[in-house]
Amino acid sequence: MIQYKFRIWDLSSRLLIYPLTIEFTQEGDVASYRYLDTHGKLKTDWTTAGGITQCTGIKDKNGKEIYEGDIIGISCGERATVKWSDFNYDEYGTYVECWMVNDSSLSDLDWNSTFTFAVIGNIYENQNLMENENEN
Predict the structure, then answer these.
(1) What does the pLDDT read at residue 103?
(2) Which of 17, 33, 52 is the last residue in one of the domains?
(3) 69 CB burial (10 A radius; 0-12, 13-18, 19+)
């Protein structure tokens, strides 16, 4: 059975929260979420979700789960942001939606033994990592 995992950027605490449950509005926005605080107490938050990202199901070279919005460092020296996007799958123009890193499928990068990659930050807490990359 597939287990979907999400995390939420909490605007008030400016922390990434790993919720136990998420409730959505009819429009698809986050209405509320429940999580355990640092003391193990169950909390419910109604309004401060700034962004929600999904786990890709792939782990980096250190065994850390990779989420949408993570910034990864690739052994070839590049940095990239993980995102959900269209991918040109083959020479016939077949497109699929998948987790992407730059112009490559994350799963292709995962299976390619030439490169290793590690999560070095995320778009919420470490925006400067990609700003520096874009200057090169």
Answers:
(1) 62
(2) 52
(3) buried
